Amino acid sequence: ASARDQIQVSGSSTVLPYATIAAEAFSENSDFPTPVVESGGSSAGLKKFCEGVGDNTIDIANSSRPIKDSEREACKAAGVADIMEVRIGYDGIVFASDIAGNSFAFTPADWFNALSAEVVKDGKVVKNTATKWNEIRAELPDQEILAFVPGTKHGTREVFEEKVIAAGCKEAGAADVFKKELGDDKAKEACMALRTDGKSVDIDGDYTETLARIGSAKNGIGVFGLSFYENNTDKLKVATMSGVTPSTETIASGDYPVSRPLFFYVKKAHIGQVPGLKEFAEFFVSDDIAGPTGPLAQYGLVSDPKLADTQKAVADEATMQ
Amino acid sequence: MPAIWIALIILALAVVGYVLGVKRALSLAGGDSRRLHSRTTYYGWNVALFAAVPALLVLVLWLIAQPVMLERAMSGAIPEDMLSEGANRSLIIADVRNTANALSAAEQKGLLSAAELADPAGNADAIKAKLTDAGIRFASGATPQIFAAAEHYSASQSTGRKVITVLALLAAVAGLAFATMRIHPEFRARNVVETFIKGLLIACSSIAILTTVGIVLSMLFETGHFFQAYPWTDFFFGTTWSPKFGGGSQLGILPLIWGTLYISVIALAVSVPVGLFAAIYMSEYASSRVRSVVKPAIEMLAGIPTIVYGLFALITVGPMLRDYFAQPLGLGSSGSSVMTAGLVMGIMLIPFVSSLSDDIINAVPQSLRDGALGLGSTQSETVRKVVLPAALPGIVGAILLAASRAIGETMIVVMGAGAAAKMNLNPFEAMTTITVKIVSQLTGDTDFRAPETLVAFALGLTLFVITLALNIVALYVVRKYREQYE
Amino acid sequence: MTDASLSGAAAPARRHGSLTQLDERTRRRNAAEKRFRAYGAGAIAIAIACLAILLFTILSNGLGAFRQTYLTLPVALDAQVLDPSGQRDLDAMKKVTTIGYSKVLEAALRQTLAQNAIPEEGLSKKDIGDLISKEAPAQLRNMVLADPALVGTSVDVSVLTNGRVDGFFKGRVTMASAEKDSNTSPAQLQLAQTLKEKGMLATKWNWAFLTNPDASDQRPEAAGVGIAILGSVYMMLVVLVLAVPIGVAASIYLEEFAPKNRLTDIIEVNIANLAAVPSIVFGILGLAAFINFAGLPQSAPIVGGLVLTLMTLPTIIISTRAALKAVPPSIRDAALGIGASKMQTIFHHVLPLALPGILTGTIIGLAQALGETAPLLLIGMVAFVKNFPSAPPEGLFDPASALPVQVYNWTQRADPAFFERASGAIIVLLVFLLCMNVLAIFLRRRFERRW
Amino acid sequence: MNDMSIMERAVTVNESKISAKKVQVYYGEKHAVKDVDIEILDKTVTAFIGPSGCGKSTFLRCINRMNDTIDICRVEGQITLDGDDIYDRRVDPVQLRAKVGMVFQKPNPFPKSIYDNVAYGPRIHGLVRNKVETDEIVEKSLRGAALWNEVKDRLHEPGTGLSGGQQQRLCIARAVATQPEVLLMDEPCSALDPIATSQVEELIDQLRSEFSVVIVTHSMQQAARVSQKTAFFHLGNLVEYGDTDDIFTRPRDPRTESYISGKIG
Amino acid sequence: MNDMSIMERAVTVNESKISAKKVQVYYGEKHAVKDVDIEILDKTVTAFIGPSGCGKSTFLRCINRMNDTIDICRVEGQITLDGDDIYDRRVDPVQLRAKVGMVFQKPNPFPKSIYDNVAYGPRIHGLVRNKVETDEIVEKSLRGAALWNEVKDRLHEPGTGLSGGQQQRLCIARAVATQPEVLLMDEPCSALDPIATSQVEELIDQLRSEFSVVIVTHSMQQAARVSQKTAFFHLGNLVEYGDTDDIFTRPRDPRTESYISGKIG
Ligand SMILES: Nc1ncnc2c1ncn2[C@@H]1O[C@H](COP(=O)(O)OP(=O)(O)OP(=O)(O)O)[C@@H](O)[C@H]1O
Ligand SMILES: Nc1ncnc2c1ncn2[C@@H]1O[C@H](COP(=O)(O)OP(=O)(O)OP(=O)(O)O)[C@@H](O)[C@H]1O
Ligand SMILES: [Mg+2]
Ligand SMILES: [Mg+2]
Ligand SMILES: O=P([O-])([O-])[O-]
Prior knowledge:
The complex is a heteropentamer, with one copy of chain A (321 residues), one copy of chain B (486 residues), one copy of chain C (451 residues) and two copies of chain D (265 residues).
Chain A: E1 8-11, H1 16-28, E2 36-38, H2 42-49, E3 60-63, H3 69-77, E4 83-98, E5 105-106, H4 108-115, E6 118-121, E7 124-127, H5 133-136, E8 147-150, H6 155-171, H7 174-182, H8 184-192, E9 200-203, H9 207-216, E10 221-225, H10 226-231, E11 236-238, E12 240-241, H11 248-252, E13 259-267, H12 277-284, H13 287-290, H14 295-299, E14 302-303, H15 307-315
Parallel strand pairs in A: 1-2, 1-3, 5-12, 8-9, 8-10
Antiparallel strand pairs in A: 3-13, 4-10, 4-11, 4-13, 4-14, 6-7
Helix pairs in contact in A: 4-6, 7-8
Chain B: H1 3-28, H2 40-77, H3 80-83, H4 89-109, H5 114-118, H6 124-133, H7 144-182, H8 189-229, H9 232-237, E1 241-242, E2 250-251, H10 254-285, H11 288-303, H12 306-326, H13 338-363, H14 366-374, H15 379-408, H16 411-417, H17 434-443, H18 451-481
Antiparallel strand pairs in B: 1-2
Chain D: H1 3-8, E1 16-27, E2 30-41, E3 45-49, H2 56-63, E4 73-81, E5 84-85, H3 93-99, E6 100-103, H4 114-124, H5 131-144, H6 148-151, H7 164-177, E7 182-186, H8 194-208, E8 212-216, H9 220-226, E9 229-234, E10 237-243, H10 244-249, H11 254-261
Parallel strand pairs in D: 3-8, 3-9, 6-7, 7-8
Antiparallel strand pairs in D: 1-2, 1-4, 4-5, 9-10
Helix pairs in contact in D: 4-5, 4-7, 5-7
The structure holds adenosine-5'-triphosphate (ATP) (2 copies), magnesium ion (MG) (2 copies) and phosphate ion.
InterPro entries (chains D, E): AAA+_ATPase, ABC_transporter-like_ATP-bd, ABC_transporter-like_CS, P-loop_NTPase, PstB-like
Organism (chains D, E): Paracoccus aminophilus JCM 7686
GO cellular component, one term (chains D, E): plasma membrane
């Protein structure tokens, strides 16, 4: 087989749009061929990444979560010792409902009380039987509870559970009760267990599926990525969280609580072997691309306030310790 | 000489061999082909096969072995200090190979001076510059050592080529000579050729076995890892499926098995009657004009990407079932349900049942129909009592194929039935299948070393065993009820 | 010698009525016959109706992809911006990125508006520039770099408009939706409308959809299925060349030659079972066997083709075996009886008679292979690929996409314009399938006969 | 040896059961049966004789509309059964075939057990109500077709595993079991040994007391033995039709004469 | 009428072509052929007679190993052709069948044209080198089987569109065209009219001058006319085997006697 001359990228479907925008612009403005960007999920991408070094392994893994220690070990065992971690920005996670429906102003506690399997009522742990949002909090609209949340395969689910449900658990004061009743370990679990009676619907597909589900069940509220919402503002109405409306600015400033960092990982051993690899990495995090006015931000990426550090690290080929 | 040329020469020799074989056989038989054991073409094929097959085998073996041998040869040429990091070895070798390719490309274009060609390693920088100018891309890391190794690589490569050229051609000529000499009028050329074809057929059948072995092997290892991290009793007997990111997942397969069976049964309940009746209508009632239009039209259903069905389930069928059946009947208000996925999947599976069955039904001899009609059966009686039983094995095969597709489908289930693993009798509840979970755990975000991801392999293997059991039962049933005509 | 006369049958006597007057039982049986026939017709009606509904949705969603809105305008290629050094040196000119070119385009459009006395009311400079697709700067840049002499002149170029503008002319975007849409505004659409009335903007047939590669999420208007078609063609070639002969050969061996014993039973069950293996598992196998073990490249049609071959084989084998089984033994006897070898019997007589069934299996198997995404997910073919693979055989090893992959990708994208593209790609896929079928159908009709 | 049949071919003139007028049959272009006019009598055995390929089977298949199943086959003219035009739009071919049974030239047992082969007709026509009745009719039919002794121990083995002659008799038994009014038999004894042949002929003779039987045969002796009426076909034409006695002793047409005088088999 | 054959059934003793020793055939449990010993002579027509189901076809199929194709069929004992054991592992059944051709009891033309049906054998055995030779052999074979006149205008129509008797003759033509050394014919004239029968018999007689022919027939007259040797089978046993003259005039076994004396057809 002849040597390959294009960069190969694999991994997260959340990072995919940003990676393709960067890849496309990269080839338009350089003589390198367009990197091939696969999507198959963060985990699958990292797994391929850690398969080893060489021509028939990928160069870059996109991930919507930081690489885990166990994965780094696996990488090392396969000879992928030097890995550059590059954070490209943040993905905001928003709650949105049908454009024609009610407006919502949520707090994490609302979500906990609406979706948790067990809630605390009058200091006692009881099964969650709420059916309407206004039973949760009187200010919320009189509307059936129906939430489309990411399925357990999605990294977004982890963020949702930790930054919304678990936070809401604490905020509602249920965490303490759980701790008292169930002990530390079980309490964390109880905080994050969602009800299974059909009020909370897992979505294993992607945001387009969530959007379609809202289209067929108008009283549903879905969890979306900020960029997805921004491309569909004519169909979706976004909800505020603790009074903050999600936007690239409020997320970058940290006012809006629900977001997660996005990364890509570069196999250092491939730099110098695969034409254009380093150039691509640098291009990806350059101000023109990943900066607050670049195309990635236009598309909905929350630009990293510390982008300059990242740029330097890439230029220095700094690897993870 | 590139491999493709060698192959072409071998094929040319085979053609020569064919002609020689025919000629020799004829001349030995005194020009009367009737005195030969086999037809003359078989003598030709016999020689052609002997000329081509061993030589091509040699060539293929070489193509597989050459990179390994070259790599070994290169190891000597690359200084030890570069190879000390064993992990990067393959990269360096790739680099050497790229450089060698770039060099030979440059040489062909006449870019390099004689001096540079004589000592590429010494002139590494100059060559690099020239290559970059000429737009020949190669990795930027090429050092003089690499150039030296590249040169060595090219040299051994060309030696290897020469050797294989000679070897392969020798094999071809030897085979040709041997086969030609063997010819005599009583020589059973046809048997030789047919034995060869039979060998080929056996090789093809063994691919199925190899695939199975490959599938089992590619999953067994990771399944082992999974069961080290997760107790098998919980997996096989657990009734809750809820993977978690932070550990503490419950990965019981039972709800998934239940969902798989439930959805498949509904899908078959739709596709088997519709498909079978369609097949019967096409082969027994419809005019050949109608049939020639309807059959390929129905086959289109098998070619529509499943995502279209998924969207159909999600946008049209799901809400419809919810609004007109589930809610009025008080069976819940879920937009996605086993029923939705089953119905839509059933539509997709219609052609699997209908087209295959139609062919089989059509192959039942007309004399059987005549027999039944002659006794005063109606056409439907003929079909039900005579034709269908005679076509049973084929029809069961078609149904099995449809069932297999139902079990293996993801997109329709995800969009139609949802992603929640539940064990419930209500067909208007959301449920999910093993296959869906295999896909989502494999393409999800969990740590790829964690049981939440590895469970996909265990699921795959378990499903494999389950379907195997179902297939054994089916084989037994078919054997029992089969009616062999004539 | 016959021991009983039939005339005194104990069974209920037969009514000897007129032919045109049906007796009760015949009427019942005829009603059953009618019902049976109606079930058959009904089944076909159901199948065809489902097909019609699906096709209608696909067509109504996807036909739009074959038309695209273009804006034609004169662009002054300002030398100051595009070649600051003034040397017409390519390397220096390459330093100007597409961002620079987009400014040139924006300026050109504004100038055109001014010349045609179209007011810019309520629109910022950026808003106006956004009417033009993000693909356009790259197009202009390539044009200039290919012919540096253009710098300094003014050229007429035809560029894609933004996806929302395009959607407006196809009815996907309305003034009302634009009101709420953060990516466009009614004013922009109004401007586009004016441009159209002036004849500068037109929606026309869009070959680019069939020839372009994919585009990133920000440029639905530029995305095409060119590479996907090539990738699918390459893969189908591999599948056709491998799966059909191997499948038929394996069936012949198993059905006609294999001794009927335990081992054959195991193989038979095994093949039926392979059909039930979810397609993603074939992806796992492909990754392990072809990429990690055999060292074939990622994202390559050859690997995709091999995986799909393994996946299609059971379908072809099962249907071929059923078809072979259906050929009556008397045909085999006839050939064997005049001294044909088993091989000759099969190839001369049995196989032609089994051909319709084999073709059906092939069609269904290929249809399945053509529409499959899941296994490709694991071998890197569900990918964003912008560079065309070269011609086969080398091209089989280059990265490529595939039609179902393109559909899958596009349905996941945020911009609703991609949904139209996805449906368009499905249309292409179905046409592809239809083309493959036509030959098979033709052959099937030639070889179909009853005996 | 022919005495019995000669004796019985007596004076009683039975009424017409089937009457054909100007029947033409085409297979695509091929004109296989030309202008045939014939009256087939009730309670009579009629023999069709003629050289191979002359259209005997084709005409026979017209009588119970089995030709409907051959796409390229076209029938013109009129055939009536008990006065009803069988090609009338209102006629149900199923009912017709229940009345006019058929034994085909090539034995075509169903791939079912011997028992089920015979029981098939009675079951679909509701001639039996229970297992006992079915057993009875199966045994009687098989005995009538002289097959009972050979198969009584293997009634539940497939009918396709029988020898050629056994299959032929099975098909006869199958047709007889449905108790048709007219039985069309296309060379029913071609694969039978003399003893079995005589048994089948006896069966035919019995059937005659109630039904009408049409038999195609190549054996002139057989025709002479079992039939009261004989029709001689030649190249698609019905050359001569009349009392069997007359045909064999005083043929009117020279073609008939030359055919029966060349008699050998 | 039988004079000719009686005359020719002369003194010359031909050498043995096929010899069977203690042949047993089982279909699963069923013992269909029992302990058969027979010598079939070269350049001789041998007739197998016996009641339907007695094992004639089964034994015939043993001679060219057609029974190999029936899964449940098991053959024991020894059969030699020109001294070679045909069940020897080294024997190629294909070559055997090329030498020992067969006409089956049920006509089974290929669903191909009439021409291709006949030309198939010569083609695969390389007996013809070009179209002219093929045409020649096709015509000769069809003429031999008395079918030429009927089909010469429709050689390229499917063989399955022929009448029963025509199909039978087509199968005879097909078998003859391959020019086997031994021809096994299972009731080749069962569906033929007397004239066609006599033509086929004439063909058989011609073939005898070079080959060995085995014919199964139910017509004792036919056996007497065409064969020099006759074997009488009964319930799977070879009851008697000898010169046709002797069998029909001086049967040694009472079973033979009762069978031929019950002769009718
Ligand atoms: N395939 C088979 N499976 C089981 N039994 C069979 C099979 N073929 C034949 N037999 C049985 O073997 C016996 C001998 O059959 P065979 O066909 O040799 O008879 P035959 O002498 O040719 O009779 P016929 O004159 O009716 O053709 C019969 O009892 C028959 O039922
Ligand atoms: N399906 C068919 N397609 C075309 N021609 C046919 C078909 N069936 C019969 N024929 C032709 O029609 C003519 C009459 O055929 P038919 O079967 O009626 O003859 P038959 O008198 O029964 O002869 P046999 O005694 O040989 O059975 C023959 O020439 C035959 O070739
Ligand atoms: Mg006939
Ligand atoms: Mg027989
Ligand atoms: O594809 P994800 O890993 O971003 O969910």
